[in-house]
Design a protein that fits this description.
This protein has one helix spanning 18-77; strands at residues 81-82, 94-96, 103-106, 124-126, 135-146, 149-152, 160-170, 176-183, 197-198, 202-203, 206-212, 220-227, 237-245, 251-260, 268-273, 278-288. The chain has 291 residues and is of the alpha+beta class. It folds into three domains: 19-74; 79-128, Seminal Fluid Protein  PDC-109 (Domain B) (Ribbon); 134-288, Jelly Rolls (Sandwich). A hairpin with a 3-residue loop joins strand 9 and strand 10 (202-203).
Length: 291
Amino acid sequence: MPDPTFTTAPDAPSRAEPATFSTKADAFLSWMQTFQGELSTGVSWFSSTTSTVATNAGIASDAATSASASATLASAASGATLHVPNASYDAGDAAISNVDFAAYRCILTHTGVATDPSADATNWTAAIPSANVGLVPISRAVASNDVSVEFTGLSSTYDVYVLEIISAKHASGSFDNLLMVTSSDGGTTYDTGASDYYDSTARAFIFLAGQVNTSGLPGINGSFTIHAASDATDNTYVLGLAAWAQAGTATSGRSTPSRRASNGVVDAIKIYYQNGNVLSGQFNLYGRVKP
């Protein structure tokens, strides 16, 4: 829309000049009609221009945020090289994980530690939070006819953990339940008492998926969040959804609202089928960045 223009007003009529009053009054009234249309066009222009300015301001703000993020990325990864197991690192050093190739910043001076930064929350923290809703990759396990899949090392670094299960299949393909239990001693023992967990009733485990037959079918897929694992004064809660194929074209699913029955720190979890091995499947554990 072009810039608005306004016609210059004619001389206004005056009772002090009766000889020209009528002529000037006619000209002034005619100008007012023209000005009304010009003013309406001007208001539309002002509104459109204000909107454009606001949009451009938003674009500029987004660009500034992107530039800041890029600067943070560059700063975080500055000087980072691939992590060397058992090497000496000082607090503040940067290293690149050999597992997920993300940049990590050393938070505790140490030497002689072989653990990769992606799995060592004691000595390292993510230099750049993941773009995946603030999720930092912690560990990945690929099952191969295993009795169970375990993740240890959960800590106060994260208030919330996210467990992803991708195509988890049962070794025999028979109907079975996919379950999870928790540990408070690093996985040395797991809580499996008859009423250690609650959903709608007391259980000896957390129900992730039930009555699954994966023979010749895709495995179980699901995502679960683990809340307050490091809070000794509260129950640990597990919430999530799982889905799997049934014979024919049917698809089944289950939501998981569950919790530990007692307060306590959870520092390890174990996933397993109730009556058979985990034939295959990928299990990913993430930590959600604290706000």
